[in-house]
Amino acid sequence: xxxxxxxxxxxxxxxxxxxxxxxxxxxxxxxxxxxxxxxxxxxxxxxxxxxxxxxxxxxxxxxxxxxxxxxxxxxxxxxxxxxxxxxxxxxxxxxxxxxxxxxxxxxxxxxxxxxxxxxxxxxxxxxxxxxxxxxxxxxxxxxxxxxxxxxxxxxxxxxxxxxxxxxxxxxxxxxxxxxxxxxxxxxxxxxxxxxxxxxxxxxxxxxxxxxxxxxxxxxxxxxxxxxxxxxxxxxxxxxxxxxxxxxxxxxxxxxxxxxxxxxxxxxxxxxxxxxxxxxxxxxxxxxxxxxxxxxxxxxxxxxxxxxxxxxxxxxxxxxxxxxxxxxxxxxxxxxxxxxxxxxxxxxxx
Length: 349
Ligand code: NAP
Ligand code: ZN
Prior knowledge:
single chain; alpha/beta; Quinone Oxidoreductase, Chain A, domain 1; Rossmann fold; 2 domains; seven-stranded mixed sheet; globular; binds NADP nicotinamide-adenine-dinucleotide phosphate; binds zinc ion
């Protein structure tokens, strides 16, 4: 058994604080990674605070993990000691249902095992990346082709990157397509960069007028302040696809009416409180679709990492120490981060 320093929340109202986790000794098909950096996803906050009512405490969040391989089992073929490696939101799945067979392990019929908070249908807890080391089955470990100097900025690709890449690919973002990204946070800023690299015409919708210049710098062709009625009216009935990353309950009709006939808005934001039900006329009159999407499979996560390496895409980050995490959560709630906190695990000591 391997002991690892970590940070955990003991219940929904406690701050995160030092904790010790035990990792299994690497088995034949396991890879042990010394974690160098871990991104801070809004899902970490939802989980630490029990906002989805499914948290198993104590909880050690963190599913944007990058680091160096320090041990491999004898059957591991694709990683060796010293390699850079990443781990995202999943560490296992059943491996035999039709979704797993399709490489869509995130939709595993028997429930994938989250990097933290255990299997989705209940079971032994798992502990995430706010820790020094992790042991993961080789088939759930990702290869990193970016250079080592970018390592910290690559961490957020493991969740924010794949959660935006997968629906952008699935709904065909590309040349000649008008794509909206709603919310400029961790997910949203990756969505803008990736949709731009896919050569779509990208419009960012933000509630923060202060983010207009950043939106353009990150790759948006246009930026709309979503509280400005005139700016919103000018975008009506034009979008092929809208990716909604907002972490809070809001009126979806504001965006549905921007879709053209047969357009789709996909929700990836997962707020604690439900959105008000959208008006049906906004859907039926133009055969518009409202959809959802969950992260992405392992094969597609590798495809996304390779795409980002090829297009020189990384996350814009603010590096923090582990003991800053509770302040970071408060700042994330105020949309006060450009655009992802990443924890330097060396600060765990
Ligand atoms: P984040 O960094 O906090 O960004 C969320 C953004 O939403 C904010 O920056 C803000 O952008 C906007 N926003 C926040 N409150 C708002 C409000 N009341 N009204 C309108 N806009 C608001 O969060 P994140 O890490 O990107 O995560 C976003 C959501 O996706 C979370 O709910 C998270 O749990 C979820 N998530 C889902 C998946 C999945 O697989 N589906 C994966 C990862 C995360 P502006 O300032 O630009 O308006
Ligand atoms: Zn996440």
